[in-house]
């Protein structure tokens, strides 16, 4: 007698993507979710061709749907460069879908590794995951910059609403040419970043670290430090004490030293550029970017889950040629489980949340039993390990999942 599928009360926002991750997306749905869950999604095709056809309106529509429904799951997508514009015959070089979605949700990106026995972190002290919280607004990513000829003088000019100017010298280039860059941030975005970090720390019962270089950047970085401190004291200090967790501020260089000596198990909040760099460092040190989860969290409690990696272009081209691939699907799989679990939690569906837990356990057990894709085969110290192709790994996960249901 076939078991009834797990019901869903509220749909997920499903954001489909590009290349090899789009192939993984369909496999995971067909083999690991649809046989067990009466899956309800509001579907948006964020594949590059469809984004181009809709003048990227589909990306904004998907983000607004996430605001309405509360939980989204996103496949990796292409952010086109000049070569991609030519390859796909695009109308223009469209912006990053992730950037568009982050802006609409006003969200913070939290990235954490998936730990499995047999794949040891390169940092021997790390025993628990380290979650990177990246402020995904401003800094160098929205900077203005220009080359400066010799003899020029560069200044920051701020004109207030009454037309009064304040000028601050950047550099006098009398002795030679150079470059200048102007960065900005917004108090409201920094405050949203802080609240997302504090809320996520409470939700996951983890300590929160935050680090900048306020001793050098006495206005820009210090602004971050002050806003975090003000919000923590006014809104979160008592909640953190009740939860038994800590908020800790230090300089970014001190944080790096502490992180390397730590055993992990905390959230490390970083400004935009710091988070971009440190998330890749943490992912690599734990083993593989393909084993890194990513969730975008808004200060209002909207969640969008995705893999931290890209579309795996090289494997996709091999797939199109009919060649066998061995693509790691773990981060994409965990995007689905994260979204299903959160949907279950918000809707009061213990069965849906429990299914997500069992699917994650089955995937981890598959690797720990020695069945894995080639990228992990090179890292794993498991006995009797064997490398399998893309679909064979997903089918092995399905076998393990079946044993637990």
Fold and architecture overview:
- The protein is globular and about 70 Å long.
- Helix 3 runs parallel beside helix 5.
- The strands form 4 sheets. Strands 2-1-3-14-13-4-5-12-10-11 form a 10-stranded mixed β-sheet, sandwiched between helices. A two-stranded antiparallel sheet has the order 6-9.
- The mean pLDDT is about 95.
- It is an alpha/beta fold and about 400 residues long.
- The protein contains 14 helices and 16 strands.
Tell me briefly what this model is.
This protein has 405 residues and is α/β, with parallel strands linked by helices.
What descriptors fit this protein?
two-stranded antiparallel ribbon; 45% helix; ten-stranded mixed beta sheet; alpha/beta; 20% strand; 405 residues
Average pLDDT value?
94
What's the arrangement of strands in the largest beta sheet?
Answer: 2-1-3-14-13-4-5-12-10-11
Structural class: alpha/beta
Largest sheet: 10 strands, mixed
Helix content: 40-55%
Task: Compute the number of helices.
Answer: 14
Topology overview:
Elements: E1 12-16, H1 19-33, E2 41-45, H2 48-53, H3 57-69, E3 71-74, H4 82-88, H5 97-105, E4 108-113, E5 130-135, E6 144-148, E7 153-159, E8 165-172, E9 178-182, H6 187-204, E10 207-212, H7 220-243, E11 247-251, H8 252-261, E12 266-270, H9 272-286, E13 292-297, E14 303-307, H10 313-320, H11 330-347, H12 350-368, E15 371-372, H13 374-377, E16 386-387, H14 390-404
Helix pairs in contact: 1-10, 1-14, 3-5, 6-7, 11-12, 12-14
């Amino acid at each position: 007698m076939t078991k009834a599928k797990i019901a869903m009360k509220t749909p997920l926002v499903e954001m489909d993507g590009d290349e090899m991750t789009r192939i993984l997306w369909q496999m995971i749905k067909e083999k690991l979710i649809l046989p067990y869950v009466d899956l309800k999604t509001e579907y948006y095709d964020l594949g590059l061709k469809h984004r181009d056809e809709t003048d990227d309106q589909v990306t904004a529509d998907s983000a607004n749907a996430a605001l309405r429904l509360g939980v989204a799951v996103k496949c990796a997508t292409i952010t086109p460069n000049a070569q991609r514009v030519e390859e796909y015959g695009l109308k223009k070089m469209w912006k990053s879908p992730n950037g568009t979605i982050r802006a609409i949700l006003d969200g913070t990106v939290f990235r954490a590794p998936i730990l499995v026995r047999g794949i040891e972190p390169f940092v021997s002290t790390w025993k628990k995951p380290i979650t990177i919280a990246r402020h995904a607004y401003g800094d160098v990513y929205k900077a203005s910059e220009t080359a400066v000829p010799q003899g020029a003088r560069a200044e920051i000019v701020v004109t207030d609403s009454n037309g009064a100017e304040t000028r601050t010298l950047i550099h006098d280039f009398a002795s030679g040419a150079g470059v200048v860059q102007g960065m900005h941030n917004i108090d409201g975005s920094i405050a949203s970043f802080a609240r997302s970090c504090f809320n996520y720390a409470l939700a996951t019962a983890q300590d929160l670290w935050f680090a900048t270089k306020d001793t050098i950047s006495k206005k820009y970085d210090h602004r971050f430090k002050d806003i975090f401190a003000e919000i923590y004291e006014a809104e979160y200090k008592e909640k953190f004490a009740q939860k038994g967790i800590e908020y800790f501020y230090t300089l970014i260089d001190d944080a790096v030293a502490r992180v390397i000596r730590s055993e992990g198990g905390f959230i490390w909040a970083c400004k935009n550029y710091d988070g971009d760099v440190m998330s890749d460092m943490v992912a690599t040190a734990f083993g593989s970017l393909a084993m890194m989860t990513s969730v975008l969290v808004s200060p209002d409690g909207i969640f969008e889950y995705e893999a931290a990696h890209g579309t795996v272009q090289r494997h996709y081209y091999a797939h199109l040629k009919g060649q066998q691939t061995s693509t790691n699907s773990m981060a994409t799989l965990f995007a689905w489980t994260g979204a299903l679990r959160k949907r279950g939690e918000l809707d009061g569906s213990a069965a849906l949340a429990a299914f997500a837990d069992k699917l994650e356990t089955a995937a981890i057990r598959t690797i720990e039993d020695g069945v894995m894709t080639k990228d992990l085969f090179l890292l794993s110290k498991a006995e009797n390990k064997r490398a399998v192709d893309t679909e064979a790994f997903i089918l092995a996960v399905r076998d393990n999942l079946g044993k637990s249901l």
